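step: validate -> pass
step: tokenize input -> pass
step: predict -> running
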Amino acid sequence: MINTIPEVKRKFNVEEIRSDFPILKRLVNEKPLVYLDNAATSQKPQQVIDALNQYYTFDNANIHRGLYFLSELATDQYETARLKVKEFINALSASEIIFVRGATEAINLVASTLCRARIFKNGDEVIISHMEHHANIVPWQLISDRKQINLKVIPITDDGDLDLDAFKSMINEKTKLVSVVHISNTLGTINPVKKIIEIAHSCGIPVLIDGAQSVPHLKVDVQELDADFFVFSGHKVFGPTGIGVLYGKTEYLEMMPPYQGGGSMIRTVTFEKTTFDDLPGKFEAGTPNIAGAIGLGSAIDYLCQFDRNGLTLYEDSLLKYATEQLLQIDGLRIIGNAKEKASVISFVIDGIHPYDIGTIIDTDGIAIRTGHHCTQPIMQRYNLPATARASFSFYNTKEEIDKLVKGLLKVKKIFA
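step: predict -> pass
step: emit ->
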């Protein structure tokens, strides 16, 4: 078995880390880039870029099909990436790791195949929360077009915490699945997913966790959580776009039918009948994103150089500093003040639309996100059209937060 985790961890030095990410050296509007939109996508270290270049320049071939050198090499690199993911989230088996395009496709795969597996009957219920990304709302609505599935929504407090008492009261004999986000991309709330899983499992209900935001910030152990499904996207965890992961317990993946049909996912095909491959091949029809998987494996190698808890503590210090500094700005209000929170801050400033905030500070090279962040129900919950959002990673600095504050003061001056 491969081991992606080095015995001696790389010492944390933010300036050295920043040198690993070439895009952080560029200028925007003749100003140094201040990239604070990590909840949308993370930047890529040079070694991930090099891994993609290496594959396309020297190793490009299709996988699982050829007996020649390049095909076998590409196959080995692709399957090694699967093993790296397996170790990264501590899955029981590499066959429980399904490569998909991202967290969105992973959730759609689970929703669609559970529906076709006749897990759901008319009148059954799926529980989600009020802080879900659209990717964990719309797929369940789509299957309700085929079955009369009812969505029940766990409410959130004004601070942005889940109401666990309300969650417990929602569970009944019609509940077939709980699907909740680990960390909110808008509020930054870190949900108590282990407790949620324990409550659901005590009633025999499986749980899907959307880990798109948690994997970049926290060390995740799917066996310790006892999650039945866990999904995340490569591009948020310093890997390429177009690649993601569905983890599922073998017992569920085996009873779910294929999501798509085509090459690679079959064992035999006749005009009368097709038999399907074992896990994980059953769910990976067609030529996959080979380079993306290799790049994701390289991103995992990069992260595993460091003490993950140390990176989390550094990001927590950025969150604390940014919160303190932003609250010094008159008229600024932070949306989401949960007890447990990741390095994401959504905010509004009285009398100024978030789009104007984002546009003006971009002239100083400061990149934040503005809008509803694919969480329109959250905007409705707080009676807002949109928020501005700054989200931090371990390559960000307090000096960049100071530039953000300076930019926001400039915005206020313009609108004064």
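step: describe -> The chain has a mean pLDDT of 96.
step: cleanup -> pass
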